[in-house]
């Protein structure tokens, strides 16, 4: 419309340009906003405070915090006085990328610039401290806010509780939660459920009271899409069991789905998957997402907005798959758009990411010697745009917490041809991780298109990840899965139980053994979800922690386990996935030498267990998790006979009870 004004013989002025810059700001189009701002002098127009404030906000939404600060610093040179809105926009730009130092410096400068900090200034500064877990600095900002008699609002408490949660200061977070209520702050219906879920408050009475308030508000008013999505998310995180309230939430949400952002739709789907699947809701959500995917223009997104859109789409795929109702139409639409986004990124990074892999297109796949891996990483399968690497114990996939980095190995092996291998925002090309003490196969991408193609497969449940573990106790062979939710914060161990992210570990007990007086089980595992320390926390949760696990067993137990195994007995032995053309690939890796020695030290409990352990030692009978036979299904052994005897006992009791009931009934009739 701005470009059409001259044709209509209407001259643009400062107001029209400022309005156009503001429109770009709302859409996150920081490049356009800066272009318009810089073009104003050429039109004999002088940018005003509104023009600059909108441009600063646009840079903030696009993650360009440095440009936002440059614009703020330019205002005095243009004889413009930065006001509260200018500073708040710049502080918010720092907040969005976790630049807490910049945010706090700007907050400190406001009084000398005769700009009075308000609740927006303080809230954004507190929020900027969250990613770096600077809770002490956040509390200082909070005290300054209260000292200046600036009234905190819901956003302020939201920011403060987030900092406390990220910094593992949960008790402080709960104190601020109750304080928000005592102060009489105007709170949305979603605030308390959100805070309880973020802080993992376990008190069932507190949780019940919070959702009772939600029910009251729900019965008297129409909640906004963002509120509804957050409440449903909290419903799933807290493990609330209230079908009546859940369906009331869904009944309000469904008619408004077109007004939900992709992030809101993700929370809605995620909460539903964690709480109890509503098939009608999932199909409605999927149809809405498919419609958006068909009309999406990725080129119109800012980098931050595009990243958020892709992550939300992948999350919706995951939630749909976890719920067991991911439609082919959703999968096809998502795969097309997400792979297209990867291809665009490859072109943007130049020949190192696109033509390099195309020039390798005719090369055959190479396979390394997977039977005798050293204690160093090794490439097991090398495809033109993706590869499988063996991670030895003691190596980290990436994160720079230890000296031995799998990312460094790939960078040294493949050089600088593939940009994604040096891109930490894309996990250096790795699709998943393995815990530091564990060993096994890791899948990595060489291009962005391959990375996002594999991400789709991972979230849609098309990649199989199979493990073998040795755990404590004789695990009952009739146990088929572990469904406990999990949550974690920072370096603390993952907690498994009734609250947190939904998680599913499938298992087959394939052998029972002992080492001295220690009972052991060899278990084949397939994970349906890939949570942090999922297998280790799940098995500890059911009373069968993995052998030599310093995080999930007592120190004395871990020390005693050193006689069996020098490190955590967990090995990812199999990966199955597809290439860009849809061809299936399967890679298997026998247990490494150190775990082989550990298995040789144990004594099998029965004949079937002995045969199974021998197969794992030889490495000749590796197969998909689903093809393994649980211990009780074959020869059985003592444990199987025990389970069968117990089953027959219960059956006998049931028959006796039926006979007694029939006898009493007949006697009363006679």
TrEMBL record:
GO terms for molecular function: pseudouridine synthase activity; RNA binding. The lineage of its organism: Eukaryota, Sar, Alveolata, Dinophyceae, Suessiales. The keyword Nucleotide-binding does not apply. One of its GO terms (biological process) is pseudouridine synthesis. Keywords: Membrane, Repeat, Transmembrane, Transmembrane helix. CDD domains: PseudoU_synth_RluA_like. InterPro entries: PPR_rpt, PsdUridine_synth_cat_dom_sf, PsdUridine_synth_RsuA/RluA, TPR-like_helical_dom_sf. It holds the Pfam family PPR_2. PPR repeats lie at residues 13-47, 48-82, 83-117, 118-152, 153-187. The keyword Repeat applies. This is Pseudouridine synthase RsuA/RluA-like domain-containing protein. The chain crosses the membrane at residues 647-669. Residues 387-541 form the Pseudouridine synthase RsuA/RluA-like domain.
